[in-house]
Amino acid sequence: MADDSPTDVPDSMTIVAWSGDLDRMWPTLILASTGAAYGMQATIFFTFWGLYPLVRDDVRITGDNAMTKALAGMNRPGMSHMKLSKLNMGGAGAWMMQKVARDKKVAHPNELVEMCRELGVRLWPCEMTMDLMGLKQEQLIEGVGEPVGAATALSEMSKSKVNLFI
Amino acid sequence: MDNEITVTVDAKGQKCPMPVLLASRAIKGIQPGEVMLLEATDGGSKSDIPSWVKDTGNELLEASADGGVFRYVIRKG
């Protein structure tokens, strides 16, 4: 056996994914999947705009009233429809970023979320935001856990050595 | 020293963090003491792989570069 053996209990990490922007969700998924590869229990708590990328790409409109439907109409949910936080240029910027990434073989968020599921990253949607935005569990991608509240997220964060708000 | 390779991971052409993710996935499939060969072209793997190997309790037996391909021979701990 190696003499510099690691600790038996893996550390854990928690990321609060508050933004649905491509350039924030991308590093969120990279760090969470890498954390899991490191043997950490990684958890992502998706809240506010961060929940939209979890909506299945084929779900066009979410929401349970005129206003929440309008929100989804103006800001299409889904991992394949994320915008850049700056220089989005009506989607051209996000398209270019993804094209460059594809050309340089950088894994797309869709691929990374798949790796996250495979490596055991917990994907926790915020219960209150789901309610606020009228999102239903069946509209979310496979592998997303049951909705949880702020206290559950905070309890996990208090156990985690790495906590990020992205 | 000749190490029999149990599994080979081809991460050539893939960028960070994929080499680490693919390595992590593959090492779950082998037994402690068995050896994995990881091939990558991502320059980030030069720091990432040794760090990941150490922190996850595995052992880096060999790291070499050949024509832009980095080869890592890793024994599962």
Topology at a glance:
The complex is a heterodimer of chains A (166) and B (77).
Chain A: E1 12-17, H1 22-37, E2 41-46, H2 66-74, H3 92-103, H4 109-119, E3 122-125, H5 127-133, H6 150-159, E4 162-165
Parallel strand pairs in A: 1-2, 1-4, 2-3
Helix pairs in contact in A: 1-4
Chain B: E1 5-11, H1 18-27, E2 35-40, H2 45-55, E3 59-66, E4 69-75
Parallel strand pairs in B: 1-2
Antiparallel strand pairs in B: 2-4, 3-4
Short descriptors:
heterodimer, A: 166 residues, alpha/beta, 6 helices, B: 77 residues, alpha+beta, Translation Initiation Factor IF3, 4-stranded mixed beta sheet, 2 helices, globular
Spatial gap, N to C terminus of chain B? 18 Å
Please tell me the total number of domains of chain A: 1
Instruction: Report the span from N to C terminus of chain A.
Output: 39 Å
Domains of chain B (count): 1
CATH superfamily of chain B: TusA-like domain
Q: How many beta-strand runs of chain A?
A: 4
Report helical residue fraction of chain A: 25-40%
Helix-and-strand structural type of chain B: alpha+beta
Helix % of chain B is 25-40%
Low-confidence stretches of chain B: none
Question: Would you mind describing this structure in some detail?
Answer:
The complex is a heterodimer of chains A (166) and B (77). Chain A is built from six helices and four strands, in the order E-H-E-H-H-H-E-H-H-E. By secondary structure, chain A is α/β, with parallel strands linked by helices. Chain A has a four-stranded parallel sheet with strand order 3-2-1-4, sandwiched between helices. In chain A, helix 1 (22-37) links the parallel strand 1 (12-17) and strand 2 (41-46). Chain A is globular and about 40 Å long. Chain B has helices at residues 18-27, 45-55, and strands at residues 5-11, 35-40, 59-66, 69-75. Chain B is globular. Chain B is of the alpha+beta class. Helix content of chain B is 27%, strand content 36%. Chain A binds chain B through residues 1-2, 4-6, 30, 33-34, 36-39, 104-107, 115, 118-119, and chain B through 13-18, 20-21, 23-25, 52, 54-59, 77.
